[in-house]
Amino acid sequence: MPPVRVVTVCGSLQARSGNLALLESLPGLAPCDVEFSAFTGLRALPHFDLDLNEGEPPLAVRAWREALRSSDAVFMAAPEYGHSLPGALKNAVDWIFASGELYRKPVAVTASSPGPERGRRGLAALCQTLGALEAAVLGGEPIARGPGTDAAAARLLAQLVAAARRVRAGQPALPEIALPPFVEDVLRGTSLRGPLLTRLGAYDLAAPPTSDEVLAALAALLADSVGGAPLDGPGLALARLDAWVDGSEGARALLDSLVGRLDESPALHALLAALGPRALACLG
């Protein structure tokens, strides 16, 4: 089969961006049948203008659309600016709303950050915007700079490549994956389901994750994201635990896991203190 073509897009215009460094490391982490190209033209794109979008678009816009159209998958790394995505990247996405280059295309999304709690609001905004394009979004969590950076980037890249291969085979990029019912209910309406599935590696596994694996990954995700996630993230998820804690061993196990992570994430204290009366009684 021909190699999987991945185009990388850095949301930062800085010459020495940490996100750019992360993207430049990907070829060394990829299988030999993956080809990379970097789109570096965000700065050249004009401000989105519906009048300019009629007829033949500007040359820079055509180059952007062709880079996406000719790829099998996209890997984006972007910082958080003002609790949202960078303006240059948002402008680039605006230019493809009508042309549809990302429709059902696998797109991995992350941010190079100093710690696991940084950059989550920006990533949530980017995922929401890409969702409006009906892209097949993977990731949505930052990759903290440090000893585990390469391993985390390689895991996300492997899932992206697997999704691209599924599309080539005529299958959906992201298969339907059922989580335990109480977990699905806890995550309903939050921005956490996609990051949880990516963290589990669920998009790249022959078998679905076990309940124990789901609970452990969810506890870790909540602990990592509580200090920097959007309001529709861990706070909403934990608020729903009160309705499940009496009748679900999984809910009790999740609470136990979170208590065990209090020392790692001081911000969890405030969220756990705001739990409903049944969950608080379960904590003792």
User: How would you characterize the largest beta sheet?
Assistant: 5 strands, parallel
- What number is the mean pLDDT? 88
Q: Report the CATH architecture of the largest domain.
A: 3-Layer(aba) Sandwich
What structural class do helix, strand and pairing data support?
A: alpha/beta
By CATH, the superfamily of the largest domain comes out as Flavodoxin domain
Number of domains: 2
Give the topology string: H per helix, E per strand.
Answer: EHEHEHEHEHHHHHHHH
Beta strand %: 5-15%
By DSSP (H or I, 4+ residues per run), the number of helices equals: 12
- Inertia-based shape: globular
Poorly predicted runs are: none
CATH fold field value of the largest domain: Rossmann fold
The top level CATH class name of the largest domain: Alpha Beta
Number of strands: 5
- Distance between the first and last residues' Cα: 58 Å
Describe what this molecule looks like in 3D.
- This protein has 284 residues and is an alpha/beta fold.
- The chain folds into 2 domains: 4-168, Flavodoxin domain (Rossmann fold, 3-Layer(aba) Sandwich), CATH 3.40.50.360; 181-283, no CATH class.
- Helix content is 43%, strand content 12%.
- The protein has helices at residues 18-25, 59-69, 87-94, 120-132, 149-168, 181-187, 193-200, 211-225, 234-240, 249-259, 267-273, 277-283; strands spanning 4-10, 34-39, 73-77, 106-113, 136-144.
- The chain is globular and about 65 Å long.
- It starts with a strand and ends with a helix.
- The relative contact order is 0.11.
- The mean pLDDT is 88.
